[in-house]
Amino acid sequence: MRHDEQVRVIKELCAHLDGDTNVDAGGLRQNPTITYTDPTQANREWNEWFRGMPQLLGLSGDLPEAGSFLTNNDYGTPILATRGEDGGFRAFVNSCRHRGTILETDSHGTKRRFTCPFHAWSYDTAGTLVGMPKAAHFGQVEMECLGLRELPAEERHGLLFVHPQPDGEIDLDWLLGEWFNDEFPTWRFDELKLLTSDEYAIKCNWKLAMDTFGETYHFNALHSNTLALNFHGNVQTYDEDGHLHRMVLCKRAIDQVRQLPEEEWDVTVAGLPVYWLFPNIILMPFEVGVFLVRAIPTPGDPGHHVSKVDFYIRPEAVESNVLGIEVPDFEALATQIARSFGEIIRDEDYAMSASQQRSADTGALDQIVFGRNEPALHHYHNTYRSMLGQELLPLLDKITADR
Fold first, then answer.
1. Which residues contact 192 (CB under 8 A, 6 or more apart)?
2. What is the arithmetic mean of pLDDT over 295-306?
3. Which of 219, 232, 331, 400 has the smallest number of Cβ neighbours within 10 A?
4. CB neighbours (10 Å) of residue 30?
């Protein structure tokens, strides 16, 4: 984030603190609970947004060197992503062209060749078929025609995007918009390395998982002994542009930041930026790195999803001990902090999401309410509804019906 924008955001947070105010959506909205339970809608979301759009597989640090690879099975198509000898990022259907066997079963690693366990056909990091045992016995084939089936892939701002359909298109100018395409380079995501990776299977709709990141109104109640110790609850900034939005949460350390000259203000000390990428991505940069959260639907089950919570760290943060905490092993401390944060999401936020799902599944409540101080929730759901061609949730001055 550019420094002038950091200053603007910190001043807005200070004004909310001093005036006992918060961001204001201008009214309330009621959201039908069926959006979390309807199998027809869930099927449309899966096919149109997850199978039919580019997906963020990770950050550049997941493929740190030539020969690095990762596999992904979250979006229907088995994906093999590689860093080639030329440094390029590529992605392929992770299936041998002989009989369709899954080629690479490890989640990540470094290899120059990928060898099929069935008949030992082998491929290089560019997807080229380079080995066929007993080729003369097999029959005449043009090896260059039987390389791995390539998937659209693009690396931008240190983010790795892949479309799970071979004939799909990636339009990062639209997905990231002018705003994020301008702001993301300032975070230097391409310099980060993966430190921790956790996965949680939760009995709630993926949108309920996303909802928990949309406000800090709950901090003082739900997180009274955890996040509320370091954050001011119910205080944030909020900015949106079309299908994009960014929140900045307010840390208690803002009290020290505001005593410094403005040229020394750092938004990651005073707050926590939260970026939303349609439809299911949360990026949260902070002092030493970034958290990446992905909520992935379970096909055929609207009431279940898997969340992946990854933390990437800046190598120089380890070397300089940027937090200023004297410990013998800073990377071990950062790992502990990252895992603790993920466990808070799992054990506190997602516990509430699972509770909401149980209620929604009964059909006893046909609506829930988004408050004036929860604008991200308004934005999430009207963006989702717009993409599905549904009527937008109206803005209400007050709730009057007994629902």
1. 59, 60, 61, 158, 289, 290, 312, 313, 314
2. 97
3. 400
4. 16
CA distance 357 to 81: 34
Asked if residue 177 is part of any domain, the answer here is no
112: domain CATH number is 2.102.10.10
Which one-letter amino acid corresponds to residue 44? R
Could you list the beta-strand ranges (E) of 208-336.
231-241, 244-251, 271-277, 281-286, 289-298, 301-313
323: pLDDT confidence band, cut at 50, 70 and 90?
Answer: low
How far is 214 from 218, CA to CA, in rounded Å?
A: 10
- With respect to residue 178, please indicate whether it lies within any of the assigned structural domains: no
Instruction: Using DSSP, state whether 259 is helix, strand or coil.
Output: coil
74 and 218 in one domain? no
Task: Give this prediction's pTM.
Answer: 0.94
Q: What is the CATH number of the domain that holds 381?
A: 3.90.380.10
Q: What is the pLDDT of residue 333?
A: 82
What total number of domains does the chain contain?
Answer: 2
Farthest CA pair distance, the chain:
81
**Under 8 Å between Cβ of 287 and 322:** yes
Express as a percent the part of the chain with pLDDT over 90: 89
Q: Does one domain contain both 43 and 88?
A: no
Domain assignment of residue 397, yes or no: no
C-beta neighbour count of 167 within 10 angstroms = 7
SS3 sequence, 128-147? Answer: CEEECCCHHHHCCCCHHHCC
The tokens for 178 are: 């002018």
Instruction: Give me the amino acid identity at 116.
Output: C
Same-domain pairing of 137 and 220:
no
The pLDDT value recorded for residue 334 is 85
In terms of residue numbers, what domain contains 287? Answer: 3-51+187-387
Say if residue 134 is in the same domain as residue 246.
Answer: no
> Averaged over 258-282, what is the pLDDT?
97
> Which of 70, 111, 108, 115 lies closest to 91, judged by CA?
70
Question: What's the average model confidence in pLDDT over 200-229?
Answer: 96
Q: Is residue 70 part of a domain?
A: yes
Encode 65-93 in three state secondary structure.
Answer: CCCEEEEECCCCCCEEEEECCCCCEEEEE
Token pair 């989640």: residue = 107
Three-class SS state of 228: helix
CB 293 within 8 A of CB 312: no
